[in-house]
Amino acid sequence: MTNRDLAVLAVLVTVVLATAGLAPAFADARPAYEIPVQYEADAEPLEGAGDEAWTDVPAATIPLSSAGANVPAADDTTVERATVAAVRTDDRLYLRLTWADPSRNASTDRIRAFADAVAVQLPANASSRPPIAMGSTDNRVNVWYWTADGRTEELLAGGAGTTTAFEDPAVEANATYEDGRWQVAFTRPLDAPTANRTTIPTDQDVDVAIAAWNGGNMERSGQKAASEWYYLALGPGPSGPPYELILWTIAGLGIVATTLVTIIGVRQTRGR
């Protein structure tokens, strides 16, 4: 190998190392519609919606828009986005939703007074994707529903207007309101306690959608701001650190080897 060949090799190796160094940046770019899920052996510090430990959990900001329901003022909604963070332990899932709301509306005692609220929608069968508007008769959804007047419900729905409440809700929720933002934390065991409830797997992604109501804007029922389907990244995924780094490095070394063999082969041919 000549000095020139060695110089070319050095340049190519430098390019490969630079590419490998950029690989983590590509790995950190999350796919669209993904909500990252962090594993924790002990999630006790996350049981409160306002617990400081939530600041270390990766989150996704999800746009919301009017659900388009066939109800009066359905398009008049005010919540434009919500941030969702998720943590899984060996036996529970924790979800924290935060969103801006200029007023805290928790009382429904007065006429035409409505409470702020938020809901999480999951497929009853985690292996299929139901219609986004509360599922269908043959592809139902579970809904975790919290309202600022103190209610937490776990619902089953098979289409718009078909919600029924489970008699023994397994979902727990708590909330804080501070500086014009609601923070609501839901938690539920991974295993479904009864039929028609979502069993939350640890080896595959699960679809999820959210909705929010601003009681101060008299939002209720179908007058809500809702998301498209997103997914909780519970599965191992086809890639991710350190897999991308390994793949980028292998690909780069292959390029180096192929280029070097080509250069040497061309020079040997010319030297004949």
- The general outline is globular
Query: What portion of residues belong to β-strands?
Result: 25-35%
What is the class of the largest domain in the CATH system? Mainly Beta
Q: How many domains?
A: 2
Q: Determine Rg (CA atoms, Å).
A: 25 Å
How would you spell out the order of helices and strands? Answer: HEEEEEEEEEEEEEEH
Q: How much is the average pLDDT?
A: 84
Task: Kindly summarize this structure in a few lines.
This protein is α+β, with helices and mostly antiparallel strands and 272 residues long. It is built from two helices and 14 strands; from the N terminus they run αββββββββββββββα.
Structure in words:
- With 272 residues, the protein is an alpha+beta fold.
- It has two domains: 3-25 and 244-271; 34-228, Immunoglobulin-like.
- Helices cover 20% and strands 30% of the residues.
- It is built from two helices and 14 strands; from the N terminus they run H-E-E-E-E-E-E-E-E-E-E-E-E-E-E-H.
- Strands 1, 2, 3, 4, 5, 6, 7, 8, 9, 10, 11, 12, 13 and 14 form a 14-stranded mixed sheet that branches.
- Strand 10 and strand 11 form a beta hairpin.
- The protein starts with a helix and ends with a helix.
- Mean pLDDT is 84; it is low at 15-20, 22-28 and 238-249.
